[in-house]
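Before a colleague's protein record goes any further, I have to sign it off. What it holds is a sequence and that sequence's fold in C-alpha cell form. My question to you is simply how this chain folds and whether the C-alpha cells agree. Thanks in advance; the entry in question is below:
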Amino acid sequence: MAIVREMEQVRPLKTLARKHGVSTATLHRWKLQVADKQIPARERLRCLEVEHRRLKSKFAELSLDYLSLRAALVDDVNKEC
C-alpha cells in the first residue's frame, strides 16, 4: 500500500521501480489490486445481490428441469430412481 501511495506522488515509474527493486508491470498490477480493494461496500453488496438473484433463478430453472426429466423417466414421481 505504501509503495502504491508513493507511486501516486512520484511521476517516473522507472525510478520508483528501481528504488524498490520491482518491474513497472508489478507496480501497475499492485495499483490495480489496491483499486479493487477500495470498492465501496455498498457497490460490492449490490453486485453480490445481483449475483445471488441470478444464481437463485438458475437453481429454480435446473430444479424444474430435473423434476420434468424425472417425471418422464419414472412412472411414480415419489418412487426413487
Q: What stands out?
A: Residues 40-75 form one domain.
